[in-house]
Design brief:
It is built from 15 helices and 17 strands. α2 crosses α3, α7 packs parallel to α8 and α8 packs across α10. The chain is globular.
């Protein structure tokens, strides 16, 4: 290996975030410290997502070990070289404890730096990056899947038009669009040039000859849930459209993401018979452990963790006032709704189901990819979340699976997205969300 070569030393959490992350570095030396394998070995028995990612990372690395010697280096298709780093002599501070696994991994990176390499220590752990930087290493986050929140696709733009043009648009249902380029299923909110009432007309990009389709604002309640602002109307248009099998909704607490998704799912399943059932799940991150370690039956284990879902269902049941929608127990017993842990969704094929993944900001891009790929023929997948409310220690607003999915699918006709801004809870609740 050449000295002064650009060298990336990968921390364990990077491989948990993305098991094939070592393939992201082009024409460089990619070092996986030997101690990383110790941590992967400890994690592989975990029944939750970390265990699955650890096992996948081990398999990926093993595939390349068959192509050469990982101690001397194996060529990667990206033009780089993969090597397993062994501890070498390195000058370290007297109080730098080598009993901690993180420190041993940092020591491996330091040894490459002190032998003349241009070293980048790559970790999702902020504390590890700080320690590495103090020792003189260039410490960086793994940003392959990062999306700038400043430029996150919102799904809508605003424009203006004359009253005459908007009247014609409403009558014909179609308008030629000569403005900025739009994504498939992107919406344009038109306000008349002179209108004190601020009436809003909605157009949707159909993908045909740069034309916009007129969207009749959703005024009627969906299972008792009525849209309270213009973006909620846009959300219902996407949720109720069977030609859009993937919908993402981003917004702070109180914007109605989960409530609208559940109302649409029940309407489409119970009344329209478009789907066979509703499947609802949330990441288990806030509970701190996998369901398998908790006592009791599956539903009993999940009841506390799924309480926000049950609260929304109770609201819909009370608002809808329908004979076939009397109680949550009725929905569960009749298998209209299934509550499932994320862990168990990944191994299934899910045809003709309306799938809702709540709090999706707590999933990695790899986990989101795995879940979306489970959707069978005739299914619809809806992911909701707030990128600024993340419980996972190794994710942030720009690296989580929800924002990654929004950006990855924004140019696809099978997907639609809406960013919701206005909280429809109490003024106090909205203020708390903004300030605290």
């Amino acid at each position: 290996m050449k000295k002064h070569e650009k060298t990336f030393v990968i921390d364990t959490n990077v491989l948990i975030h993305r098991p094939d992350a070592f393939l992201s570095f082009r024409e460089a030396l990619v070092v996986i410290p030997l101690w990383v394998f110790e941590e992967l070995d400890n994690l592989k028995r975990d029944l939750a997502g970390r265990g699955r990612s650890a096992r996948q990372a081990i398999r990926h690395i093993n595939d390349y070990s068959k192509k050469g010697n990982l101690q001397t280096g194996v060529k990667l298709p990206t033009g780089g070289t993969l090597i397993v780093g062994l501890d070498q002599d390195a000058n370290i501070p007297k109080d730098f404890s080598l009993e901690k696994m993180d420190n041993k991994i940092i020591l491996c990176a330091l040894s490459y730096l002190q032998t003349g390499h241009e070293v980048f220590f790559v970790s999702k752990d902020i504390n590890a990056r700080i320690k590495a930087a103090v020792l003189g290493l260039k410490a960086v986050d793994y940003e392959n899947n990062k999306v700038s929140m400043e430029f996150l696709y919102e799904g809508v733009i605003e424009s203006s038009a004359t009253e005459e043009n908007l009247t014609g648009f409403q009558k014909s249902g179609v308008m030629e669009w000569d403005g900025r380029a739009l994504m498939p299923n992107q919406y344009v909110l038109f306000r008349p040039v002179k209108d004190d009432k601020k009436t809003v007309h909605i157009g949707r990009q159909t993908g045909e000859n740069h034309s916009l389709k007129y969207v009749e604002s959703w005024q009627e309640p969906v299972m008792g849930v009525k849209p309270l602002n213009i973006k909620q109307r846009v959300a219902f248009d996407l949720l109720m459209d069977d030609s859009v099998p993937l919908v993402t909704m981003v917004g702070k607490a109180g914007t109605g993401k989960t409530l609208m998704a559940l109302a649409s799912a029940l309407k489409k399943t119970i009344e329209d018979k478009q789907y066979s059932r509703v499947l609802v799940s949330r990441p288990i991150i806030p509970m701190g452990q996998d369901l398998g370690y908790l006592p009791g039956e599956k539903l009993a284990k999940m009841s506390h963790w799924m309480q926000p879902i049950f609260d929304n269902l109770e609201y819909i049941i009370d608002s809808a006032n329908k004979q076939n929608l009397k109680s949550i127990d009725q929905l569960l017993n009749n298998k209209i709704i299934e509550i499932e842990a994320i862990t168990y969704i990944r191994g299934r094929s899910l045809p003709r189901q309306f799938i809702i993944i709540d709090e999706a900001q707590n999933l990695t891009p790899h986990e989101v990819k795995t879940i979306v790929s489970r959707a069978g023929e005739g299914s619809k997948v809806v992911l909701t979340g707030d990128p600024y409310q993340i419980d996972s220690p190794y994710l942030d607003a720009e690296s989580n699976g929800l924002t990654y999915l929004v950006e990855a699918f924004k140019g696809e006709s099978l997907a639609g997205h809406i960013s919701l801004a206005k909280s429809e809870r109490s003024s106090l609740a909205e203020l708390a969300t903004d300030l605290l």
